[in-house]
Amino acid sequence: MKTAITRGVSDAIAHCELTHLDRTPIDVGRARAQHAQYEGALEALGYRLIRLPADPALPDCVFVEDTALVLDEVAVLTRPGAPSRRPELAAIEAALAPHRPLLRLEAPAILDGGDVLRVGRTLYVGQTPRTSAEGTAALASLLSPHGYHVVPVAVSGCLHLKTGVSQVAADALLINRGWVDARAFPGLRLIDVDPAEPTGANSLLSGDTVLYPAAYPRTLACLEGEGLRVATVPADELAKAEGGLTCCSLLFDA
Ligand code: CIR
After folding, report:
1. Angle (nearest 5°) at CA 206 between 115 and 249
2. What's this model's pTM, rounded to 2 decimal places?
3. For the chain, what is the mean pLDDT?
């Protein structure tokens, strides 16, 4: 059964980690309403939701993607690059334990799930302040026995690899080439974000549907022009916390 782990928006979201954006007020009620629409969109795509409660002590807990990598064979609990985010793992570990054998990244390795883009058996891993070379190597040694190939990818100017590139079809990626080294993806079709929408490269692919933020109409038109089926959700409130659509769920078959 298609399953999605999500987690509520913390009362403390105003104190979230920020790297590339200036801090602007976040309307918690609006963020929660948009998050509920996101969860509804996942249900409409056939997911059963495991909805974890928010923790008022963990400002970024809604961004569950960064805490784990869930594959068919195993799940890897990450060691997030921001120390403030490491206490998020306990609830995720408890939620995943019934579904997968759990592997762990150990100190000093750091890695955020937002830096991992899986395409088939290849794991592209963004090299960012949140994900170190040690983290990348540790992930490779945990997962190469399971048949996964890890490819480091240079990233600059955005928070995570998937801020700048995401999968929109089996053979296609949506990318901001200014932030992500496009040479890392030979053999894949690359669709560029509209130049006026540099933050529009994060989408969530499920089956043949691309879930996409409503805030980027030019890139949306481009995706539709490529013949892709796209469903939009509003996500601009959590975008103020540097979160996109992939960030807010862990998707797997259970
Ligand atoms: C952070 O900086 O960690 C959060 N404010 C945003 C995390 C977004 N997660 C993601 O892109 N996977």
Report:
1. 50
2. 0.98
3. 98
